[in-house]
Amino acid sequence: MAEILLPLIIGLGLGVIIVLITVWLKSKVTPGGKITDEDALAERLKDSFSRISFDVLKSQSELGSQELDTKKALIDQTLDSIRQEMQKVQKTIDQTNKDRSEKFGELTSQLKTTAETHQKLQQTTQQLSTALASTQVRGQWGERMAEDVLRLAGFVEGINYQKQKTMETSSERPDYTFFLPQNLKVNMDVKFPLNNYMRYLESSDDISRDSNKKQFFRDVRKHITDITKRNYINPEEQTVDYVIVFIPNEQVYGFIHENDRTVLDEALKNKVILCSPLTLYAILAVIRQAVDNFHLEQSANKILALMGTFKKQWSLFVESMDKMGEKIEAAQQEFNKLSSTRRKQLERPLQKIEELREQKGLPMETLKPESKAPEKKEQKPKGIL
Length: 385
Prior knowledge:
5 strands, single chain, mainly alpha, 71% helix
């Protein structure tokens, strides 16, 4: 902008100077009104300055026009860049809208599926709650959970454990009896009181929840006492000094841990081990490892005994082989004597006999044994084939 204003100001300044000179020259005109040389000079100066001003203005106008064209080109280029960027932004916005529509559709479908799954889960939970209200069904559920853990631990019925078999010295029937090394056993009960725990979960107010919670822990303590009164721990049956009580739910086991740890301490004092599915798996893993180690130890002892027997037989074998070697060596020596010394001793008389035969001129056949006369063939009677 300053480049355009500066020439304009210069042109205006020249014009003012020309006007001032013209006025001064006119003040010099003669009284008769005739044009003098000064007037002509003033006119010429006026024309010259006018042309200069016009040329300057024209030149500046052309420069301004070129500058405007250049700036217009830059502006057009900038506008093109902005237009391209706007197109990219619009394309991104369109793609985002498309992706958002697709994601919204997927989200709607997932929400619908989640709602259906939640409804089915509620129905299943309701059915499970109804089923677990029965003591018999809870016992069957506990057995099913225990069977799954046993199968996962690799236990086989009849080999690693037996199920609901009456004890030999009493009428008690443990739910499960596990076999330990050295003919020892450990019994497990899978029945557990859950009625008040279910009521605790279904309670709608704090008073009933607290009441059901206290009653649940009373039931647990009573169940532990009842277990200790049974003959699950019986030296005559070669059982260990502990009995296992299976809680078929991790949530119930955690609830007991969080709210009253004295229950677990009391159970251990009474030689009762409370275990959940996870802790039962750990116990079974220890039992199986102990059984495997015991069997491995027995096998190692048998192998050591066999090694002792093998060593004894090997010593006898080596002794017999040495004797046989000595005999073979003696026989070899005798054979060498027969094939060398004895043979030479026998060949010397034969050599002398041969020399005598050659001296007498006897043929070789005379020294051969007389040949036997050929046997006559028996003639068969005529008529017999």
